[in-house]
Design brief:
four-stranded antiparallel β-sheet, alpha+beta
Length: 146
């Protein structure tokens, strides 16, 4: 019995130590900002065309002609494809719009550099957050943990 308790104590200490260990040199500690650009293009849809920069005009034109042209359609895709995530529809969860971003690099099976994605965050009882990306070009959905 002492052996089992000692083993469990050592295991808990080792796992706890690794959870707080410093990341290795060169590892990616926060992939979301590196995947997406910092500009949020969602506000450009409410602005008059003459007030938009050239980059914003391209974004509005590209997204308007895409398969997921509005944030409401992105939310609908998330609701439709996340049937297995019943916790998202509970009274304790809320979905937050985090904007429209441009991808900085290719992500196999999801999108290409330059694609626009709607960013939606799901907050479950202020304890668990998950970020979902909906690609405007191909309607693909991916969930990331921030």
């Amino acid at each position: 019995m002492k052996t089992i308790l000692l083993f469990l104590a050592c295991t808990i200490l080792c796992v706890g130590t690794q959870a707080y260990a410093e990341p290795k040199q060169g590892t990616d500690t926060n992939a979301i900002p590196r995947l997406l650009g910092t500009n949020d293009y969602s506000s450009a849809f409410q602005m008059p065309t003459e007030m938009l920069t050239a980059e914003q005009q391209v974004a509005v034109k590209t997204v308007a002609s895409s398969k997921v042209a509005t944030r409401n359609s992105a939310w609908a895709i998330l609701a439709e494809r996340s049937e297995s995530l019943k916790w998202m529809t509970s009274a304790l969860s809320r979905m937050l719009d985090r904007g429209l971003r441009k991808m900085n690099r290719d992500l196999d099976g999801f999108g290409l550099k330059g694609d626009f994605v709607w960013v939606i965050e799901v907050d479950m009882a202020h304890q668990f957050h998950q970020v979902f990306l909906v690609n405007t070009r191909n309607q693909k959905l991916i969930g990331l943990l921030p």
